[in-house]
Predict the structure of 6-phosphogluconate dehydrogenase NADP-binding domain-containing protein.
Amino acid sequence: MASPAPAPPAAAAGTTPPLRIGLAGLTSMGQNLALNIAEKGFPISVYNRTAAKVDATVSRAAKEGALPVLGHRYPRAFVLSLVRPHTVVLLVQAGRAVDATIDALVPYLDARDAIVDSGNEWY
């Protein structure tokens, strides 16, 4: 099985201003929310611990009209792509996945940053 093509690199530092919002968790709900936000004209930075989900989201954004979605495979690059204070919407499965994602992001976040846990464990 061939490895997936790499996600297009996020714009080089200094060429694109930092984005106002980021979304971590690109399964069905996360991917659709990110694309909806981008479709409304708001550039969004996305991250998922599985690179294939990042690739699929960026590819879908391109196919649906070159939507302003910047994909990131690493938490550091994802957080640094956002303006301060950082705002991250989290849409991952409740439980250990939430903890693991927060643990991956925390080293790059500050006290004034916000993580909005938008998952629903009862769905």
